[in-house]
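Continuing from the previous page of notes. For each protein in this section, the sequence appears first, followed by its structure tokens. Read the first protein now.
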Amino acid sequence: MDIREPAVAGLFYPDNPLQLQQDIDTLLHDADTPYAVQQPLLALVVPHAGYVYSGPVAATAYKLLGREKQRIRRVVLLGPSHRVALFGMAIPTVEKFRTPLGDVTLDCDALKKIAGLEGVATRDDAHALEHSLEVQLPFLQTVLEDFTLVPVVVGQADAEQVRAVMETLWSPGDTLILVSSDLSHFLPYATAQAADRQTTRQIENCEPSLQGEQACGCYSLNGLLLLASQRGYRVVTLDQRNSGDTAGNKDQVVGYGSYAVYQ
């Protein structure tokens, strides 16, 4: 059985399972998620930096997801490629992704279903060192009771191609779309605040025209926003801060946002 081993355990998050679980439990406990509606949660957008930086923002989304842990049985996880030059989208051949908290089983049937779609290629190299997907897994392992994973690394891809992947796999009854993306990078604190507020407005308005300087996961986000706009879904901001608010200095910051998509 082929397993994708963790690449950033001990770097972006603790490699000791007890410490990792304690850190996640603390982040979830401290998270403020006042927003709740009766409609099922369809999708989330979460950041993917080291937990000390983006963990508090991500936790606001995962705390919300925890309320639906008995319903969600599959997570379609899309995040940007940081290590490999990639055009289109990459899916893996392995059967499990491993973290210090254990193994996550991949939905191989779902991967086969999207393998033939335009822009999708099988490339384990795009997954081997990619952190944007990996850092989400311990959170998912904590808040969900039992789930399978469909991991997709997204390079330069047309929003329609990304939307088609989501449309093919989206089952509102038991499937969550999870997009991993940070916001602005390495701007002064006040400049980043203004830039990220504008990006948040575009996300809330379901405008699928984000650029790389606005969000590193812009290609995944644009696919999600295109689908949401076509279906008349609503995007709600759960949290929006930057590294100057969490654990870094304010000279050059990275922006983080968490967002929820509802019917």
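Done with the first. The second protein uses the same format. Note its length before scrolling.
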Amino acid sequence: MFKRLININPDSKHSAFILGPRGTGKTYWLRENFSHAMYFDLLDHEVYTEFLASPARLSDFIPSNYTSWIIIDEIQKVPSLLNEVHRLIEHRGLRFILTGSSARNLRRKGVNLLAGRALTYHMYPLTTVELGNRFNLSFSLKYGNLPSVYDHEDPKRYLSTYISTYLKEEVQQESLTRNLALFARFLETAAFSQGEVLNYTEIAREVGSNRHTIINFFSILEDLLIAYRLPVFSKRAKRDVISHPKFYYFDVGVYRAIRPTGPLDINAEIDGPALETLFLQEAIAINDYFSLDYKIYYWRTRSKLEIDFILYGEKGLYVFEIKRKKKIAPSDLQAIKTFLLDYPMAKCFLLYGGNKTYTDQDIKIMPYELALTELRDILSQ
């Protein structure tokens, strides 16, 4: 339904990993673009149990004269299959595409085992480039950009099901934690930290656990590829900046589905993080798909001056501050102007809810939606 930005050369001699959360479209894309490949789905219970009992059986399914691609979907379900994949690459010259929605076992074993023999790709929620004229800011901020929300009759119900059947069951199936009820409470509590600097001790107190367990839970979210912890930008720091990371779920629709809401909730408490999340997921995807090679940070001083996103790489240093408001006051520019005193080479942008583009000193002020759709061009300058 959408032309995705991920690009694997069908004539490549290298095998490939495709990593990405469930629901980002890995399987659909592979079936469309590698329709003639041999396909093994480890979410199929029969296939899963057969390979779990004997990974070596993989070779028995592949004819001796086979030269096309072999796809193994959700390879992390049977990590021991990686040894057999490695053997078949080495001894028979076969080409594999391995997908995964959990990086824990793959980080520990697979990527290292197949280093130099398998290129790594990522699949993300849809970008504005992929959505084209179907991009609707209000819809994206409400339901996110997982492909299925665009053809589902009830996107809200789909996201609720996604949370219960994927996040919680995936954790249970992989035995990532024995206390699923505690982890479920943690998921909701973490949503209140969306776009915030993490305070592990405070979160532990709220869910009735300890700091060590909470740090491990955040690592699990990253291993499941559904969350990011952004480090603080401190290159040649002249000011006293904080050291704790900022937290984001990977998709704004998933964030909204996890976060409990009630009549006393203030829109700004939800809509502000939603704007930041949508920008971040776009920036991460564009950065990877187009090999821009930026590292993504945030910046905050002890005096609470903060910039939402810093992108730093060989192409330059970019600053993005995001505001919901439709009119910008001088005080809204204070953090960026302070940052410019230390990093005068930075290209600075303030994205807001208005509809005019203008410049205030060295800061370009742009409508949020316009900046989102032009982000690739901005970062490629």
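What the second structure shows: Residues 128-227+250-261 form one domain. The mean pLDDT is 89. We return to this in next week's lecture.
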